[in-house]
Structure formats: structure tokens, C-alpha cells
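Hi both,

Apologies for the delay on this - the queue was longer than expected. I finally got the pyridoxal-5'-phosphate-bound model through. Below you'll find the protein sequence and the ligand SMILES exactly as submitted, and right after that the C-alpha cells for the full complex including the ligand.
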Amino acid sequence: MKKINFSAGPSILPEQTIEETAKAILDFNGSTLSLMEVSHRGKDFIAVMDETVALFKELLNIPEGYSVILLGGGASLQFCMIPFNLLEKKAAYLNTGTWASKAEKEAKLFGEVVEVASSKPDNFTYIPKDYTIPADADYFHITTNNTIFGTEILTDLDSPVPLVADMSSDIFSRVIDVSKYALIYGGAQKNLAPAGVTFVIIKDEILGKVSRQIPTMLDYRVHIENGSMFNTPPVVPVYAAMQTLRWLKANGGVPAMEKVNKEKAELLYTEIDRNPLFVGTAAKEDRSRMNVCFVMAEGYKELEADFLKFASGKGLDGLKGHRSVGGFRASIYNAMPLSGVQALVDAMKEFEKNNAK
Ligand SMILES: *Cc1c(COP(=O)(O)O)cnc(C)c1O
């Protein structure tokens, strides 16, 4: 039985991405050489890099004046690279979860950090909405999808200062207006490719404003000037990302993804709200369409391990919640088909039949 992968990350990828990357690892473009052993400066790989960047721009409708770069180091390296390049005096952060907290911690190494609001006292179950962004901040940092706690900012916020967003776990999942952001970044391993490549979309005019010296490898301008080839890029993950973006384009692009993602999330949350054995953990208005967190309801707490085992027996893999939330987390990224979510809903109904008091 082929398992259905609900893991939060690394996570499910389109079959096409895995198959085409596997083929290229054995024989890249009919060269008889592996994608893993060819020069990244050869024309065939440069074409891969160019197409990947072009697809980013096309699928996200990225306006003129922005660059797309593909780097190593994960989203976590961006936590320090962003303030290194952008923070001169003061930056504002919205604290909505573990990743947001980690980003904020790094910024403190470079200047004053104003935490405009935090939902930490409520275990990050909601997105704070009532706060003021200091008008003299160099930028305002948000995490659009909180992978661990299952909350998501589903609109493009207005900000009086450059808006910086960690979109590691919801990039390409809904239509966004890139012009409202100064910088968007994320690790690939949630919605795009295997771990190893990190995307950064930057408005060029925000760079070059800090007075500190920036080490070459941490300077966005170096990577922009060198077309993400200043040093050896992670070629296999970049190739896989290109395949995912081709798949996305062939399937109607981001608007089509958004439509299915809404259907999937609606299907699962409706079942969580209906089924007396389960209860959602995130505030309803802030529920993530990518990571659905839920626990056993009062009176059924002792059945947690049983449900995981039951689901696993049906091939539903990776449902265990993060240790800071407990219970279950169903990650239903772009590559998860509606039928996968339906299989989980069916399992929840059957488990209810077997166990309801
Ligand atoms: C997974 C994740 C990260 C960390 O990504 P790495 O590539 O492992 O550094 C950061 N932010 C968010 C929102 C994530 O989901």
C-alpha cells in the first residue's frame, strides 16, 4: 500500500517531481551523466536555473524590480541574513510561533527589535491583529504560515515599512500580491522541493542601505549579481523545484492550487468540528490551510495513540502533532490531493463509529 504523507516537512511532493528528478539523477537530459555529477556552469544546468527563476516570476506574478535567488542554508539562515542586510537601527517582528520567535532572536544580534505583538501566552493559537508597526522600523517581519501551530495569515498585510515574510510553508498555496512585500523567503521542503534550497524574492531597492560590512556569502547583492551561482548551488533540489513549478503551471497555477487548498481545508475542518472525538487547536478565523492541528476531545484523550495507530494502519502517515501542541497535525500542502484528505476524514468517521461513547 502506498502511504499518504501528511508530514509537516520534509513533506509530500508531486509524483512528477520525484519521478523526473530520479530520471535526471540517472541520466540528465540524455547526457548519460547524472544531474549530480555535471557542472552547474554547463549550459544544461544554467537552463534549469533560468527556467526555475522564470517560473517563480510567472507563477507568482512578480513585478519588475524584484530578484529571485536560490540559496543554501535553509530558511533558518535567512533569520540572520535578513537583519544582516536590512537592519540598520530597528526592526519590527510579529511573534506568531516557534519559527517567528527564532527569526526575532537572530535580529536582536543586529539592532533594536520591537515585538509588535505575540500570541505566545496562548500557545500561539491565534494571529494577533491589534498592533502598531513603528513607522521608523527598517522592516516588519511576519511568518505567514505557522507550520507548528496551524495558524496562517491569509491576506497580504498593509505595512508602513518594508514587509518581510517567511513563507516557507505556504508559498504557492494562495494568490499573493508580491508588490506588498519587500522580501519573501522560505525553505523548499514544505511545498516545493527536497531540503537544501532556499528561495528569496527581494525588492532590489531595499538593498545597500545598511552601513555594516556584509560577508560575501551573506550579501544578497552578490547572489543577485551572480544569478545564484556565486558558489555551487544545490543542483538536485533546484532541479526538483523546477519540476514542481512545471507541475503547478500545468495544473492551473496558483489560483487553481488555492481553490483546491480551500476545498481540502474546508473538508478536514468541517469533519473536526462535526466529529465529537476531535477538536481543533487554532482559532477558527486563523486556521491554516496547510497544517491542520487537532487533538482528542475531552473524554477521549486516552485514545490519541490508538487513533495514530488506526490511521497508520490505513496508510495515513506523519499525523503525529508537534510536541509543543500534541495530538495530530495533518499537513495538506499543494501536492496533497483532495482524495488524500478524504481518506483521513473517512478514517476519522470510522474511528468515531468504533469509539464514540
Ligand atoms: C520549516 C520552517 C522553517 C525552517 O526551515 P529550514 O529550511 O529547516 O531552516 C522556517 N520557517 C517556517 C515557517 C517553517 O515552516
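Main takeaway for now: DSSP finds nine helices and 14 strands in the chain.

I'll put the files on the shared drive as well.

H.
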